[in-house]
Amino acid sequence: QDLNSLKVSRDRLLTDLHYTCQWGTGKRWGENTTDTGMRRLALSDTDKQARDWFVETTKAAGCTVTIDAMGNIFAVRPGKRSGPPTFAGSHLDTQPSGGRYDGILGVHAAVEMLHVLNENHIETEFPIGVVNWTNEEGARFPISMVSSGVWAGQIPLATAHDLVEVTPPRTETLSAALARIGYNGPTEVSHTAIPMAAHFELHIEQGPILESWNRKIGIVTAVQAYRWFTLDVRGRDAHTGTTPLSARADALLTAAKMILHSHRIATKLGCVASTGILTLEPGSTNTIPGHVRFSLDIRARNDGILDKAEEALRRDFAVIAAGEDVGGLNDGATPGKACQVEWRTDSVSSEIDFHPDCIKCVTESAEGVFGAQAKELTAEMVSGAGHDSVYTSKVCPTSMIFIPCKNGVSHNPEEYSTPEDCALGAQVLLGAVLRYDRL
Ligand code: HGY
Ligand code: MN
Ligand code: MN
Ligand code: MN
């Protein structure tokens, strides 16, 4: 069968994508806005609805479905010969106020691949698999790509199971959530229990590169390194009216200086640093905050830059906590009393390079789609975002395919990719998986 004759259905892909996006369309930041975003947090009831759809649909497409102890869902379509399947997959969970494409597009494109194989009565050499990875975002349980991390043997199962949600009500553990929605599968979470010949992931780029380069497909060759930390800054609660500036151990002021300084270090080292979560106590207008907790996400093209960034931040945060000045942060302000700062490392992900065989399958698939225009419509690139493919690449040949997203915006309700680009991505994914199957 000529691979280029197999065509995905754009309408079916987008209809199914919009259908499953009914689960988790929520009000952004509570009820008092008209702004809606996707809020399908990992292992929530809406995630369960999307998962149930995924299980039903892949079973109806002739797959056997296995659920492991992290709630990862593996759907496998048999091939002529038995052996480890070539997988395509991504994730169904979203950010607290996320977009309609991040993760779920890759799952749908993989399901669309099954439909195309079935309607063309294709028997692949080996089995073909489709996977949904639990809690890729790390937005609810604070280790991102945690389930592919356990499967790849990089994160202990107990560590993952014991994670407590960082979103309200901040009470449920990951393992309790799995049990509550009935996705605490019996299968061991490991690449020996569920072997993969290869893993391909279609994903929106989530940045501005493809759009600025006027390219339709990103052939992803690598993923940048990143590290997530949680910092606790402890000062002393005090009265805002009676306490002189010099007598304050103001945890929020100290944390604010640290966050500003992390931006200066990132600028200097050519990496990125972000704080997305910040909580403080006691939270009263007339009490100086005695405790602040904030997240720190640092990313760079390689571990060497991150080592430098982490070293500088640990050194300078200690100085800032001691109430001393770093690079003029205190200019004109009365220095206060010392605070304590405590670091917790939540996750560390090194830079990774994808497998040349998979990159070649994606490149050839794109050539099959674009013909002579392939060179001007595709580009090799490095992923700024982390993905489950980071972990699968540690145990099996892996690579990714990107499509552009409008204005490079993601993790935002405005996230958008055109139906044409979604279908192009799904077409290249189909061709890449089938080329790998025949390798
Ligand atoms: O954090 C990331 O890069 C991904 O969106 N989980
Ligand atoms: Mn994603
Ligand atoms: Mn994401
Ligand atoms: Mn991902």
From TrEMBL:
Keywords: Hydrolase. One of its GO terms (molecular function) is hydrolase activity, acting on carbon-nitrogen (but not peptide) bonds, in linear amidines. Coiled coil: none annotated. This is Amidase. It comes from Trichodelitschia bisporula. InterPro entries: Amidase_Cbmase, Bact_exopeptidase_dim_dom, Peptidase_M20. It comes from the Eukaryota. Belongs to the peptidase M20A family.
